[in-house]
Queue: 4 jobs
Job 1
Amino acid sequence: AAGLRRIGDPAAAGAVLAAAAAEPAAPARRHLLAAAGVLDPSGALPILKASLADPDDRVRLGAIEGLGACARSPTRRREALSILVDTLAREPGRLKGDAARILEAVTGRKLGMNPGPWRAALETPAAPGTEEAITPTEYYGIQIPSRRIVILVEASREMCWDRKSLQSVDRLERAKKEAV
């Protein structure tokens, strides 16, 4: 399912939607739901919306991810964003944060986890041509649809040794070089 999501071939949409509706295993269902939103935004919306009521957090996370993909589709954007905002009001903790993160990634707006500002933003129509779009960045082949990237620097003893030259190196200098 994750591979089909990355490939993005719409020909797989029917099989993914059928599997997402029938799959009993929550981890697999999560990835199927996320893939369904990418492959068929229109067909996936009903099953994604229904999956937000699933008792398993993993399934609801897949539905949130799938809705994020649907929100990138011009024909389903408004409906998917509205469902994601409703999810902010309903979900606690981590899933609420995931929904807010996806809303921010799709819209380019930083309005937090409170559904009020998001509802107001959705009700205010944007002027033509002013919708903010995020151009995905790639890092080692992984798409990063964000404007902000955090780099975590490892400072263990491994960072003191260059495997190619077999010589000691300055950790900070090496970290800067790797980040660039």
Note: The beta strands are 137-139, 142-144, 161-162, 167-168.
Job 2
Amino acid sequence: MNILVTGAAGLIGSELCRQLNEQGHHVSAIDNLSRGNVIPEGYFIEDDITKSNKLPFYHEKIDIIYHLAAINGTTNFYERPNEVLSNNTRVDLNVFEFAKRCPNLKKFVYASSSEMMSHSDFCLESPTVKIDDISNPRWSYKISKMVGENYLHNSSLPWVIIRYFNVYGTETQKGHIVYDQIENHKKGTYKVIGPEETRCYTYVEDAIDATIHCVSKCNLKETINIGSNEELTSLEVSNIIGSALGFYAINYELVEGRKGSAKRRVPNISKLLEYYPEYSPIKLREGIRRVIK
């Protein structure tokens, strides 16, 4: 297969390129290197796709597009909301327009997010999404993904939507609890924001393995959750990270969660398991050990 990956130098994109290359696919990749600098093997172009829908690739040679390019990271949602919203929307629209000109395109895989279901404790692959306060900067990212999903549903593109749930790995960037808490512990800052809020964390190798497997088997116009079913509080995550770094019995400063942050978020992965019954993601404790190592 001839596969194009956008956002190819980031956490998810770089691992996706690695696994696709290992499987023998011909991978073309593009990234502006703003949130990652892992240059994937194969044909890579550094470029900013917010500026044009004329991507420097041969349309007729592309079989699958994995569109991952976006500004992510919870801290960015609050600190750079207008940049997150405008950047992500421009990137999506440009890549969608490029995809329309690919005559042999079999699947367009869109990386969406668990943020789409932030109003729900148990997250289905539902088209019903809600925003409780349009002024909340957190929703800058969610709104950009709502625009992307809405566009695809009303397009003729052969789309598949993947909603990722808290993916982490060695290339995790600032704004994710794993990166932030590792750095905080190293600096001697022992603080947990939203200590009782729960999430399910997915090691990036498992997330991409599941993505490729599901995309190869699923129908068009499907939305699939990619995540784990190990539910942990932010305090539990911080303790796992602390103990992995050699810190024990820490008296954390507990801080109220940010405005709009879900109290509980657990993915329904029944569709994922239908396509991939053998899927068995590692636990967070093992994943953190790998990240720190």
Note: The CA atoms of residues 2 and 26 lie 5 Å apart.
Job 3
Amino acid sequence: MREYLPLFFLLVLLAAVLRDDAVVLLFYLLAGVFIAGRWWSRKALASVVFERRFTRRAFPGEAVPVRLAVRNTGWLPLIWLGLRESVPAGLTVAAPPLDVVSLGPRGQAGLDYTLQTYKRGYYQIGPLFLSSGDVLGLDADHQRQGPADTLTVYPRLVPLTQLGLPSRSPLGTLRHAPPIFEDPARVVGKRDYASGDSLRRLDWKATAAAGRLQVKQFEPSIALEVMLLLDLRAESYALRARYDASELAIVAAASLADWLTGQKQPVGLLANGADPASGDGPPTLPPRKGRGHLMRVLEVLARVQLAEAAPPVADLVRRQSAVLPWGATLVTITGGLDEALTDASLHARRAGLNVVLMLVGPVTSADEARRRLKPFGVTVHALWNEQDLAPWRG
């Protein structure tokens, strides 16, 4: 507008000096076009609505097509409408998501682009910037900002086939080779009665058919109720490998949760990091079964981040020792082992829990911790890199 002020001033001056009707008419014409165009562009831009359509959850390496559907709900046409979408760092697009379209009354248009995911995260897609103006360009462009959406990229899952996690719970659904516990709900056959067999195992129908006492044989099994404690306190990881080690810890937690869910075992998650979705710490997910619960676990693992002011993981271990049932397995995934965590792990062991420590990254004290804690029944695994998960792949 400012660049046209000298022209308007000149026209007013000429109209006053020359008293020419043509100059006065030209002045009123330009002023009317300016006022009408300014009102038109603002009114038409306010009538534009849009919808962003895309799959809101994905795994690393997947392509996510995005469709921006723009619609003019008013009766004033937009001669031109600029669309510019914001794409967060961590996601890439083949071409910049921007375009200029024309929308008539009740008209529709769209903008298509594809997001390529590479790493887990909680991403903000948008906002979408809309801009428009009058035909002659007498007024500055008017802009609007549309709301943003979120895309959750789950952590990568490493397929596992065997873990060897301990359990002392007498009932469950996992087949177990050593006949330590037998599940009375899993009958696998019959046999002749032997001295010492419990009368509760007698099968009276089979006894009547065979003419001699028959007892039921049960399949040995264990219950593997697991609580994953993910340590995302920044101080727990060595500075030179902080990012890589913490990401490996998240991959390990996600892979463990996926394997346990596939075995129809309950798994829970508790992390001490930051959650951008809640503005506070991530929620505590108690052990549950099912794919739906696994998706909730993966969503939390997709969002969590390292935190400077996070409670020590030893505090989480002591807290869970008081609420988990006897025989459950407590898996602590961390980048460092100190005396507080050692004491808390031994306390959990004395409380009847099976304790597993996963030390992720360049932890030089892993061998010493394994020798020190093995006599007390605490299992220690060292994960320097993802290849250390290979023994669990079968």
Note: The longest helix spans residues 21-46.
Job 4
Amino acid sequence: MSMGTRCALLSAYTMRRVSADSHHSRCYRILLLLLYITLAVHSFLQAQPIENWTDDYIDQLAASWPANVIDNVPKWLRWSPKGGTRMTIVQIGDSHVQGDVAAVATRTYLTRAFKLSGGAIGFSFPFGMARSNDPRAIRSHSQSGWTPVMATKTKVEQPFGIAGAAIDAYSKPTPMHVGLRRDSPYSLPPSEVQVLFVPSQKAPALRLNGVFPDTIDKDKGTARFSFSTPPQSLTLSLDHVEGGLNTFRFLGFVLDNQASPLVFHAAGINGADVRTHLRNTMLPFELAVLNPQIIILSLGTNDAFNTQFDPVSFRADYTQLIRRIRFMCPKAFIVLATPNDHLYRNREPNTRVADAAETICNLAADEGCGVWDFYRIMGGEGSIYSWDSHGLTAADRLHFSPLGYRLQGTLLGVALYRMLTQEPK
């Protein structure tokens, strides 16, 4: 009998005994569950040498991972591509999302699980123009006439894109050149590109690859372009309009292909905490433009990394963010993801993560949100050591390695698939 099987049997027996005894606390049950998950995760990670971790193996590992589910899911939330309705998912977060490796793995898993020809890439922001790391679908670099602005670098409320970043154009800048690439074999090249900008009736006329948009809505800040042949690069040019405003704030691209019934948008920015996204006055409006059925908020890492972390203030800020989003997207199901276990300044486990995760789980229950408790799923406090010993973390043991992000993203993909199909674990 494997260690994973022994752990499962021991946990099931113990949990039945604890549930039957009213004198045992909920905290004791949680500790037992974390003990089971920690042992089981260690057993799972030992199963295959790291050099043999193929895509198929990662899929199998994530599918058999213990307790990998989204909780608080309503029974009505189901989806199948055969139903004729497009599924749009948006994930918002911090550096774990900006890196895009996990998000690509999530979309890839869903594409394969639902047997689709590919998924639409969705939102992308040219972070290279801000001397930061681009998402995998974009190649960009600093260009004259464009000034990046980050919500992480200001304490003042401003309109940013859903990633918490924007690029200002002053007067008439040189055209913005951005290269495109397939972020995975399971993504479809864009046949439609949407340019997002801060709404203004005085916004200058836009051209993308030399053509004017098929449609433009200056009240929403969207310009939509169609291409018979998917472009290999994008060149965004601005023309002044008579009496127009000389300042234009660019918020991002949406790379779409209507041939796919699934689009998974990922929008993150390095260093973001909950207040970063609260400062973004455009976030709820940009989400309404994307019109998602599911919104995943992957926040809490940078909040808990702060030594002044206060669970009460954190909960109050997060509640405000959720309610702002829900006001503009009342039909969307919001899922809160807890942060990963990590080391504080590469020295010892950050004990504040447990407080952040507990706060998020309680908030999700009170606000009617789903919760993907990744902190628990990865093994709880100290599990970062096990992930590190298997080559799944970066050197700081705060972030993951590319392979670690592939595993994390695939785990989320499995949890989303189970949620959308209501498949029992």
Note: The first helix runs from residue 3 to 20.
